Each structure stands twice: as structure tokens, then as C-alpha cells.
Amino acid sequence: MASNSRVSILDYFNIVFEGENGKIESNCKACGTRIQAKRTVTSNFVTHLKRKHQAMYDEFVKKKDVKREAYASGAVHTFAGNASGGSRSSSQSGAGLTKFDRSDPRQTLISEAIAKMIIRDLQPVQIVENEGFRELLQLLEPRYTPEPCHYIQQQLLPSYAYQVQLATKQALTGAESCSVTLDLWMSSSAAVSSGGGYLGVTCHFITSDWQIKSALLACLPLTGHHTAQRVMSEFDDISHAHGITGRVFRVVSDPSPCESRHTFRLPGFCLHDNGEIDEDEEEDSSDEEAGTGESKEVVQADEGDNSLDRCLGRCRIDCFARSLGLCVREGVRSSPQLSIALTKAACFYKYVIATVAPEKLGQVFGLGVTAATGQNSSSVEQQWNTQLKTIRQMLESADFLEDIVDRHDLALSSFEKAVLQELVEVLEPFEEATDMVQGDKHVSISLALPCVLGLRKHLGEVITRQCSGIVMGLSQALDRRLAGILEDPLYVTATTLDPQFKLSWSSDSDWHKQVLLEEVEKHTQPVSPPEPCPEAQPSPSKRSKLFSFIKQRPTTQAKSVEQELAAYLHEEPTDEDPLQYWKRKSIDFPLLSQVAKKVFTVPATTTAVERIFSFVSKTLRPERCRLLPKNLETLIYLKANYRILWA
């Protein structure tokens, strides 16, 4: 039987002072930290253990659980007996238990865990009022008192948001400069449900110890027709509120900011069985009917006066990840015969997934395939580069799959295999580039210029016999959207200051050196050597005479930008992380490091809020609009900044 002794958080602390009204001061037994609290409100002690001594905290929670189980065992047995007799409902199973006080650590921790679930899954706060959810809580912890919906929505979530705002503003105080990503998300279903869309403003900065940090500064709902002037007005207000006005180095936004989807699905490779028409497919159809396509519309917008360009000037740059995705989209569309082979491949894939044993599927597609849905853990139908990997796996195991499948009419013909094989070979470098600029890790724009050069070289060498038009389409899209990167001083500077590239990519190093020098002079302040302090002449002594043969060290002279650049380029390229390299070399190259600390804040990849928008777009389908949380912008804000509160 479990012990009846009380489990107390104070067992892990030494009480050194006890005052009036139950006030106590205690030292942590593990680290000696002084904690002040009341005997009746011990959350400070619990928080200290949770953050500083995880093992001790786990031990404390385990003891509490054991005590709880022993205390609640009678109630559980009563519930089991009444369930068989049908004389008592499950909601009454914990009626005989003493509920937690509002200040009890377990009450607080469970409420926090529920809030975390709502934030991470973007669930409506009203879920806490659902009968099934409350029955689950009653079963797991009968002593917990569920918090009302209005408390979580009006107090708990705003409190978390306020904590994030304070932490972000404090972190930005020490940042010399930062870059900002504007994510404007609009959707037809969003327009139906909320009358507009959402604007996400994400800030990227480097701390004093050369750590890259990103934080969503705001997620704002936009109602009605949005304009560039309104977006800029909101952006100015956010910048002022967070104290970054005048310190923004670059603003990154989509070249066509009507949507925030950075990838597309390969045409025809649809893995849905429920008859749904994807938004991408609808756009493809409308483009074909109009005889234009997204690329032409975007070009027309680029050739005209872009409002964001007028407002931000040279401070604004296109998102490289988005531009790269649009290049692939336009190139694939230029080869119409691809859609037929991709449709056949999708049918064959779905049949294989539905009929073949999982252990055999694992030999081809890995362990992530789920037979019930026809999807893998990477969401095959979501991104073209993931779909391309699946097609490559199918082609590599085509003979094996055809042997174990009984529907030979679904098998790919030799011509279809040849078409898909060419598609894989042509898009492989684009797939590699896309993989590099996706994911949670901050990716610098220093990768953009080498990627463009590598893609150009690949397209100049590849030969196609089946996929006519795709190489020319990709080349034209690449020149139209990304050729300007090769001469842009920002990209030249970022790539040269990346220690893995330096000027190894350049065909005209003298010109690129000059570009870099001009860019460095724009964004640096002179670094002067410390003035020597006047010292009195030392009186003669045995020690000074003893060491008089040692020459006095010459005063360190500040290097010019040219000298720093020459010394930097003289070193061999290294695969060391750029931020770690400049942290180590900031003393040797103070002028270059100033610029490095700016250019490496500019992201080439999508941001956390953009990925959240992509997730939300699934929730905002017209048939599911009723599930939309009322305070969606607060949940998005907290989800994007989850690590700030809960690392």
C-alpha cells in the first residue's frame, strides 16, 4: 500500500525564513537558489524544479502520481462497480474526491498542458467545454477542475501572448539590425469566413553571441480589400511597437503575395480518392482556359509599378524559396505530356499502397507509408519535391512492384517510365535546392547565388528526348525570376562572406571584390584602435633592466576593408557554420563581421508562420469553417513563438 505521508514540493528546499501570512524563503537543496513564496502558493518552487532540475521535478511528479493513484483507487473501483450496474454515471466517479485548489501545482500544470495542446494543434478554445473532453479529464485526474472557456480565451492565452511580446522586445533591444519577413495569406474560404486574410510579420536577428533567432512579431487579421499602403501602415506600427524602426536591414516577401504557398503539386500526381479538387488544380484549369497562367500574371505585375517596391524601395527582396518554386511550376507546365504519365503513376501508386502488405512497401517507400491513407509521414501530396522522391522510388523498384501487383493494366509502360525518368533527372538539382531551403532551420540567402549558378549549369548540360519543352521552360523561368541575383550586391556579399563559398564561384573575382568593398563601406562604421593610455615613465628597477632586451610590442593598427578582405580570401574555404566562423573571426575582421551580422539575418527559406498558414488553409475549407477558432490570430502567434515560452 502507498504511504499516507504528504508529498510536498518543500521537501526539495531548505526553509531559511518564515514570516507573517505564511511567507517563506527557501534555498534549493540542489543549487542554493533563494525562492520566496507562500506555503499555500508553491508554484514558484515547482517552476524552479521544472526549469533547473528536471530529474528532481520528474521525481516529485512521480510521487504525486503515486499518491494520487492510492487516493483515487477507491473512486475508480466505485466507478467500475457502478458501470456494471448502470446506477451511476461516469461524470460522478470522482465526486468523493477533494478537488485541487486553484493554486495547486498540479492544477496549474494541467491547465498549462491543455493550453499548449490548443496552441500547438490550433484547436478552438471551446474544446474545453466539450462533454467528451471533460470526461477524459475526469478519468485521468478526478481532482482537476476544468477551467472555463472564457478563462483560457480571455486570460490565459493573452497572458502567454504578453509574455512572448516582452521576451521578444527585450531580445531585440540588443540586436544591431534585423531582417523581416512579410507573409500575406489570402484564401477564398478565408474571405468567406472572416472577410479577408492574415498578415504575419516575422523578425530575424543575430544575438551578441552570434546565434540566429526568429520571432513572429504579430499576426493580424485583414478584413476587406488589402492594399500595399495598409500593409505598410501595419508594418510600421509593429516595427515601432517592437523598437526596430530604423534597424530593419531587408524585408523579404513573396514576389506574388496573394498567397502564401511556396510549393505546388506535380500536375496529375493527385493522391486523393475522395473526389476533392485541389486548389492548385483549380488554378491550373483556370490558367489554361485563360491562356495565360500564373507566370504571365506575375511578370505583368513585376513589369509594372509594384506597390511594395515603391513603399520599401531596395529594402525589399523576393523570397528565394517562393521564386524557386515558381520556376519549377512554370517549367513543368511547359511540357504538357508530363501530366498523362504522372496521372498513371498516381493511380499505380495508390493501388500499390492499398493492396500491398506494409512490410513489402517498406522495402520501396520506407517505414513512413500508411496504407490506410496512401500518404507518408512527409505528406506526399503536399510538396512537389516530396512527390518526386516517391516517383524516383517507384522507378527504382518498378520490376519488383509489377511482380507483386495483380493489376498489370495499371503498370507503367516503357514510354511512361522514360518520361518520368527524364522528369526526375531534370528536376533533381531543383529538388536538392528546394530541400536546402525548406524546414525549420534558418537558411541564409548566401545559398541563393550558388544555387542559381548550379541550376544554370545543369540545364545547359541536360538532354531530354521525351519531355520536350521542360528544359527551355525551366531556363526561361530561371532567367526571368532569378538571374538578377547574380549581379545583386546583397547576394554577392552574402555568398562571398559565407566561408564555404567565398569567391570560388566567381568568373570575375576582381569585379566581385569591388562590389563587396562598396557594399561593406555602405553598412560599416570605422573601427579605430584603442588609444594608448598615457603612462608615467617607470622608475628604473631590476625587473625593467632584466627584460630590457625584449622589444616593445608595436601598437596594433586597424586594418582597412581591403586588407581585411584580402586576408579573409587568402584563407581556404571551410564548411564551418557561417555564424560560428564569424563569431570566431569577428576580432580579426571587425569590418567584414559587421556586414556579416546583417546579411546572414536575411532568410532564403519560408518562415514558421507561413507553414502555419499552410496548415490553417486545410482548416479553412468551406465545409470546415465552423471549426475555425475565433481567436485564430492569437493561436497562430503563440504557435509560431512556442519555443520562446516552452523551449
TrEMBL record:
<dbReference type="InterPro" id="IPR012337">
    <property type="entry name" value="RNaseH-like_sf"/>
</dbReference>
<dbReference type="InterPro" id="IPR052717">
    <property type="entry name" value="Vacuolar_transposase_reg"/>
</dbReference>
<dbReference type="GO" id="GO:0006357">
    <property type="term" value="P:regulation of transcription by RNA polymerase II"/>
</dbReference>
<feature type="region of interest" description="Disordered">
    <location>
        <begin position="82"/>
        <end position="102"/>
    </location>
</feature>
<feature type="region of interest" description="Disordered">
    <location>
        <begin position="521"/>
        <end position="541"/>
    </location>
</feature>
<dbReference type="GO" id="GO:0046983">
    <property type="term" value="F:protein dimerization activity"/>
</dbReference>
<feature type="compositionally biased region" description="Acidic residues">
    <location>
        <begin position="276"/>
        <end position="291"/>
    </location>
</feature>
<feature type="compositionally biased region" description="Low complexity">
    <location>
        <begin position="82"/>
        <end position="96"/>
    </location>
</feature>
<feature type="compositionally biased region" description="Pro residues">
    <location>
        <begin position="527"/>
        <end position="537"/>
    </location>
</feature>
<dbReference type="Pfam" id="PF05699">
    <property type="entry name" value="Dimer_Tnp_hAT"/>
</dbReference>
<dbReference type="GO" id="GO:0005634">
    <property type="term" value="C:nucleus"/>
</dbReference>
<protein>
    <submittedName>
        <fullName>Zinc finger BED domain-containing protein 4</fullName>
    </submittedName>
</protein>
<dbReference type="InterPro" id="IPR008906">
    <property type="entry name" value="HATC_C_dom"/>
</dbReference>
<feature type="domain" description="HAT C-terminal dimerisation">
    <location>
        <begin position="570"/>
        <end position="641"/>
    </location>
</feature>
<feature type="region of interest" description="Disordered">
    <location>
        <begin position="272"/>
        <end position="301"/>
    </location>
</feature>
